Amino acid sequence: MTIRKGETWGEPAGIERPSEFVSTDSELAAVLQGYRNSQTVAPVIGLLGGSLHRTLGAPQRDEAALRAGQGYIYPIDVGILEFSDTQGEEHEVVFVAHLLALTDPRSRLWKGRTVVAMNAAFLDDLNLAPKSHPNDGRLDVTDGQLNRSQRKQALRRAVSGSHLPHPALIEQRVSNRLEIRGNTEFRFLADGRPCGAARQFSITCSPDAARILL
Questions:
Q1: CB neighbours of 5 closer than 8 A, spacing ≥ 6?
Q2: Which pTM value belongs to this model?
Q3: Cα–Cα distances in angstroms (integers) from residue 204 to residues 65, 70, 79, in the given order
């Protein structure tokens, strides 16, 4: 069950141990993708780094400490990107921290139309979704394009998360399927990894889809 206001979240690891460990968001997403593709339930996974790890306070526990029973287990939501490529092949991509859909050929944030879907607060050094929580059953989505001066200012302010609200960026908190269409092709970066391109796509929040230990 996703977290509710005033409720505690997470539980001590106790005797439960992770079956595997990952150090980045993309590694975690790849592991969860495998379980999703095989239609099996993912076990607890140890997380040692990445934007999701930072959003949860970046605890300084290494693999040995987690294997020894230290740390906390947290249920998390994941995002699902769906699109069809130019050959008509359907794709379904899991992301755990963030998805960028960019029209700029060099994948620069807000240089062209940019859709950002966040399940974590951070993207590298930028606090792109200061209100995001990875187990609230929603993705924090912004959609828009900034001119040169707006972009420069927004990138500077995004370090602290104060770039929002912005009149040129539409904000949504998405719990159900969101369909997005563009006049030009979007290039997708899911947890930092390129994963395709399309003119239209959908994003969905899958609540309580995994459990992580950190």
A1: none
A2: 0.94
A3: 34, 33, 6
